[in-house]
Amino acid sequence: xxxILSSNLGYPRIGELREWKKAIEAFWxxxxxxxxxKKTTKQLRLxxxxxxxxxxxxxxxxxxxxxxxxxLDTAVAFNIIPERFQHHDPSELSTYFAIARGEANAVAAExxxxxxxNYHYIVPELKGTAPKLNENRALTYYQxxxxxxxxxxxxxxxxxxxFVKLSKNxxxxxxxxxxxxxxxxxxxxxxxxxxxxxxWVQIDEPILGTNLSEAQLSLVEKVxxxxxxxVPDIKIIIQTYFETxxxxxxxxxxxxxxxxxxxxxxxxxxxIQQHGFPADKVLGAGVINGRNVWRANLEDKYQLxxxxxxxxxxxxxxxxxxSSLLHVPVTKVLEQKLDQVVKEGLSFADEKxxxxxxxxxxxxxxxEAVQKDFTASQEAIHNLDQSDYRNxxxxxxxxxxxxxxPFSERKKLQHxxxxxxxxxxxxxxxxxxxxxxxxxxxxWRKGEITNEQYEDFVKSETKKWIKIQEDLGLDVLVHGExxxxxxxxxxxxxxxxxxxxxxxxxxxxxxxxxxxxxxxxNVEWEKPITVKEIEYAQSLTDRPVKGMxxxxxxxxxxxxxxxxxxxxxxxxQIALALEKEVLALEKAGVGIIQVDEPALRExxxxxxxxxxxxxxxxxxxxxxxxxxxxxxTQIHTHMCYSDFGAxxxxxxxLDADVISIETSRSHGQMVETFEKNDYDKEIGLGVYDIxxxxxxxxxxxxxxxxxxxxxxDVEQFWINPDCGLKTRKAPETIAALEKMVEAAxxxxxxxxxxxxx
Length: 757
Known about the structure:
With about 750 residues, this protein is α/β, with parallel strands linked by helices. The chain folds into 2 domains: about 5-385, TIM Barrel, CATH 3.20.20; about 405-755, TIM Barrel (Alpha-Beta Barrel). The strands form 5 sheets. The chain has an 8-stranded parallel sheet with strand order 1-10-9-8-7-6-5-2. Strands 15-17-18-19-20 form a 5-stranded parallel sheet. A 3-stranded mixed sheet has the order 11-14-16. β9, α11 and β10 (about 315-320) form a beta-alpha-beta unit. The radius of gyration is 26 Å and the shape is globular.
C-alpha cells in the first residue's frame, strides 16, 4: 500500500497585497525601521505557513522566504560576499541589500534570469571569498514555524551543485574545488537541522534538468554520497523542476531519501515507465503547475498520478506542485472585476494548495470523497473552452518573413533620414513612474477622475519629460510610457484574447513585482494601441521619438498562457497583431520603432536539444511583427540580463537595425561575445545599471564605452542605460542621464578625432 502525502515546494513571499514589497521599499526609504520590516515580514511568513497548515499540507516548506532573492540568501549565509563589499559586516541587512542594489562606490552584483523564468537572481561571485557559515537561515525559519505554529516544516536549500553552477568568477577547472569548500557548510546546516528535530529537507537542484557534463554528474554523485553519509539523521529530497531530468537513471540512483520530479514540463513519466523508479525512495510527483495560473483538470491529474504510482510502484508518493509557487500570485479571492468565467478557470497559490490536498485525498480515500471538487474543476475548464475567448478564427501567420533590403542597404537610408551624430544617445523606453503618476492612474481606474483628466495628466508628464530629454541633449527621445502600467500587461489590456487581474502580482526581481496578463484564447488586434501617445510626443519636438512596443516572444513568455493553447501558434498570433501596430506607427510618421524582446532567452528549454525549434519560432515571430516596414524605418529591440553568448545567432537572426542589451553588471562578458562574432548591425550595450539607485560617474561610463569600442565599431555603437527607467526616481534619473550625455560628448570628440587621423 502506497503512503500518500501532500507537499509544497515554496510559497509566494510578497503577500496578498504586496505587503512585502511595500515594507522593503519603506525600509530602503528610511520610513520604517529594520525591526518594523522584520515584524511585517514575519507576519507574512506565518500567514503563508498557516494557510498551508489549514489546507492539510503534510510537508510544508520553510526557509523559502527571502528579503530579496534566495540565491543571494545562500551566498550571504555562506560568506560568499563580493570583494568590494567585504568591508561590511555580513550579518547586517544593509550589507545584503548593498550587494543586491549597489552603493555609492560599488556596483551591485550581477542579476540574471532563474533558469527559464522571469524571476531574477543575484549571481554569486566566488573569486576572493572564504566560505564559512554566517547564519543557518534554514534552522532559523524551521524553528520559527515549529515554535509559532507547531509545524515540523521541511527546510528548503539551494543545492550546492546548482549554486556553484549559477555562480561566476571561477574557472571551470575549479568547479569541484568550490563544491568541496561548500560541502562542510551544507553538512553543518543539515546536522543542525537534524539536531533541532527536522525530519525532511528539500535540496533544490534544478540544474539536473540541464545538460551536465560527465565530470559534473560524477560530482553530483559524490556530493550526495558525502551528505547522506555525514548526516544520516535527516531525509534529503533532491528536488528538480522546469524540465525532464537529464541522466535519469543516475539521478534517481543518488543515495538520498527522495527525488522530486516535474510532471508538467518535459516527460519524466516516460522515463519512469521505461526505467522504473527505486522502490525504497520517496517520489515527489509535481503534477500541479507551479508556473501557471490556470485551474487544473483534477480528473486528468488524478489519472496522471495513478499512472505515476503504477509505473513507479513506490512506497511513498508526494503530491506536489511542479515547482515553487513563487512564480504565481497568492490568491484569486480578491479578484472582483474579472470575467467570472475566467476567474473560475484560475488557480493561484492558495487554490493550488487546495488542488494538491484534494488530489492527495482522492488517492488516499477514493475519488468519490472529493467528487464535487472534480466536477467543479471540469465545469470551469469546459466553460472557459466554450467562451468568447476561444471562439475565433485566427489569422494565419506568414512564415519566413524578411525585410525587403539587407541591413547594409537599409542602414544608408536610415542614416540619411535620421541624420544622427556619432555615438547617438537614447534611453530604453520608460521614464520614472512617480507616486504622482501611479496615484493619478489609481484615481482614474477607480473613477475618481474622468478619462479626459487622466489623458491631460499623461500629456503633461509626456511634455515635461520631452523637455527634460531635450535639455539633457539626448539624440533620440522616448515618450516615457506614463500611460502604461507594465510593458506586457498594457498590451494585454488592449489585445483581444487577454484578460488582466487587479491583484495577480508575482515577484520579478528584488521588490519589483509584475502582473502578467491572462492569455485565454486567440489574439487579435482591434485598433491602434500606442499611436496617439507617440504622435503627441513627436509633435513636441524636432528630434525623433521612438515608438515603443513589447515583442511577441516577451508578451507570450510574460503572460499566463492557457495550457491548452499551442504556444508557438499563439506567439505568431501576437506577432500578427503587433505587425498591425507597427504599420500604424509607421503610417503616423514614426521613423524609429522599438519592439522589445527582454524575454527572448527566458523561454529557452533547459535541454539544449530543444533550443533550435524555440529559436526558429522566436525569430520568425519577431520578423513577422517587424519585416513589413519600409527600409528607412529603423527597427530597434531591447534585451535583458542573460547569457547572450549562447543565443548570439538568434540575436543576429532577428535582423533588427539596432539592438540594446542590459549589460552594465556584466559589461565585459557581453563585450567578449561580440569579440568572438562579427556582428554588423548597430548596438547599444547598457553603460549604467538602472536597477541600482546610485548615479554613475562620467569616468565609469567612459570606461564602459571605451571597453565596448575596443571590439565594436564606433559607427555601430549607441549609448544608453541598460534598461527602462520606470523604477527610478526622477532626480537620480536626470542626474544619471546628464552624466551619460556628458560621457557621450567626450567619447564623440575622442573617437571623431581618432577617425579623422
